[in-house]
């Protein structure tokens, strides 16, 4: 059994993640659920070490033992790239490989809202793509960078850990820098990027106050900055950023966010009703004048309603609006819609109203007269 064969099998089965754990056979996540990839004997820690031997040279093995975990990217040419995470659990080797499609999907192919193209066509500002682990943030950001690369003549710098999607130069120049190989930290790479004539900077993750502060400065000085946070919605994203700073710094950061935050795209994956994979429910916040005031005045609890109220003019949408549309179109079930919602009671009322209207419409349809 070779790791390449397991990865190929995962791709063929349309799996997203391969799990290697001592005491279990190779496991794969498909449509959000984990099952055995193949009917085989349980893996031992030594089996896993042998499977991973090509990725654990002397340097990597030292890093793994020193840090107890190690992230990297690898590729099966013509099939897919993978993001690997090696770690220890109960003293045994463990690993997870996530599939990264060989072809970078477009915004249209991902069925993402068209307003995303307008948002990233801005010359400056901070755009955040957020969501829990496994919600497709990296894929969405890759599609956004791909759109810019195909549409504009710019200098795009990405700072990633590790590099996942590989961008070829098209209309733009794309410089991709990997933490550990090309630079030491997100913060130092971001500061350095400001001296490299950037138009667009992608920061793989804003992990600390220094990175966030530098990203805001970059947005303030005329650059488009795209980054990500592991937060569930716009309110939580803004609160998380502000809470990263000391109380003495928070007023200034809140003011900067109100001015230079361009948009927040928060997403969660929901099971499709037909069983054919997952679909993204997406909240889109565009920083309207009213929302700017809410951020500045520390009224983030009102942002969700503001998003809904501005949907027709600014093309924004709340999670409930996105989930309602997916349910209305027959894409997801009511149970999954309600389970995903931040405010299931309001969503349930909307769905019940829709179902009642459909029922009434069916009852009011004229009956066909068969007596001609």
Quick recap:
This protein has 372 residues and is an alpha/beta fold. The chain is 40% helix and 24% strand. The longest helix has 21 residues, at 344-364.
**How many beta-strand segments?**
13
| Span between termini | 72 Å
| CATH topology (level 3) name of the largest domain | Rossmann fold
Mean pLDDT: 93
- Helix and strand content put the structural class at alpha/beta
How is the largest sheet built, in terms of strand order? Answer: 9-8-10-11-7-12-13
CATH superfamily of the largest domain: P-loop containing nucleotide triphosphate hydrolases
Evaluate the radius of gyration. Answer: 23 Å
Number of discrete domains: 2
CATH class of the largest domain: Alpha Beta
Work out the strand percent: 15-25%
Unreliable stretches? none
* Percent helix range: 40-55%
**Number of helices, where a helix is a run of at least 4 consecutive DSSP H or I residues:** 15
CATH architecture annotation of the largest domain: 3-Layer(aba) Sandwich
Largest sheet: 7 strands, mixed
What shape does the CA trace take? globular
Order of helices and strands: HEEEHHEEEHEHEEHEHEHHEEHHHHHH
Would you give an account of this structure?
This protein is an alpha/beta fold. The chain folds into 2 domains: 3-101, Beta-Lactamase (2-Layer Sandwich); 115-352, Rossmann fold (3-Layer(aba) Sandwich), CATH 3.40.50.300. It is 40% helix and 24% strand. It has 15 helices and 13 strands. It has helices at 3-12, 45-51, 58-67, 115-120, 137-151, 186-193, 209-220, 234-243, 247-260, 289-296, 303-309, 311-314, 319-328, 334-340, 344-364, and strands at 17-21, 27-30, 33-36, 69-76, 80-89, 92-101, 125-130, 155-160, 173-178, 200-203, 224-229, 261-271, 278-286. The strands form 2 sheets. It has a 7-stranded mixed β-sheet with strand order 9-8-10-11-7-12-13, with helices on both faces. A hairpin with a 2-residue loop joins strand 2 (27-30) and strand 3 (33-36). Helix 6 runs parallel beside helix 7, helix 7 runs parallel beside helix 9 and helix 8 crosses helix 9. It starts with a helix and ends in an 8-residue tail after the last helix. The model has no long low-confidence stretch (mean pLDDT 93).
């Amino acid at each position: 059994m070779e790791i390449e064969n397991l990865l190929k099998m995962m791709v063929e089965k349309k799996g997203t993640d391969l799990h290697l754990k001592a005491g279990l056979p190779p496991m794969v996540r498909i449509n959000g659920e984990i099952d055995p990839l193949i009917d085989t004997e349980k893996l031992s820690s030594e089996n896993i070490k042998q499977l991973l031997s090509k990725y654990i040279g002397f340097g990597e093995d030292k890093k793994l033992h020193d840090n107890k975990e190690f992230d990297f990217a690898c590729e099966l040419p013509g099939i897919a790239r993978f993001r690997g995470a090696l770690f220890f659990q109960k003293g045994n080797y463990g690993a997870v490989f996530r599939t990264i499609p060989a072809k970078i999907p477009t915004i249209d192919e991902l069925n993402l809202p068209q307003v995303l193209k307008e948002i990233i066509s801005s010359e400056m500002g901070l755009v955040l793509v957020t969501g829990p682990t496994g919600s497709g943030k990296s894929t969405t950001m890759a599609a956004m960078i791909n759109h810019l690369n195909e549409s504009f003549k710019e200098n795009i710098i990405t700072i990633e850990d590790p590099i996942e999607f590989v961008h070829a130069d098209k209309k733009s120049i794309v410089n991709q820098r990997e933490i550990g190989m090309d630079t030491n930290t997100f913060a130092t790479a971001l500061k350095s990027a400001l001296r490299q004539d950037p138009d667009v900077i992608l920061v793989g993750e804003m992990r600390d106050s220094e990175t966030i502060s530098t990203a805001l400065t970059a947005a303030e000085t005329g650059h488009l900055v795209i980054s990500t946070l592991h937060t569930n919605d716009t309110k939580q994203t803004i609160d998380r950023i502000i809470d990263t700073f000391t109380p003495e710094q928070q007023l200034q950061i809140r003011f900067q966010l109100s001015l230079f935050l361009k948009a927040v795209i928060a997403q969660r994956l929901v099971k499709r009703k037909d069983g054919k994979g997952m679909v993204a429910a997406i909240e889109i916040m565009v920083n309207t004048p009213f929302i700017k005031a809410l951020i500045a005045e520390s009224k983030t609890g009102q942002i969700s309603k503001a998003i809904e109220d501005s949907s027709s003019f600014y093309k924004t949408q709340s999670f409930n609006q996105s989930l309602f549309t997916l349910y209305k179109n027959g894409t997801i079930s009511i149970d999954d819609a309600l389970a995903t919602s931040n405010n299931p009671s309001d969503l349930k009322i909307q769905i019940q109203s829709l179902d009642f209207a459909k029922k009434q419409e069916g009852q009011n349809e004229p009956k066909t007269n068969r007596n001609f």
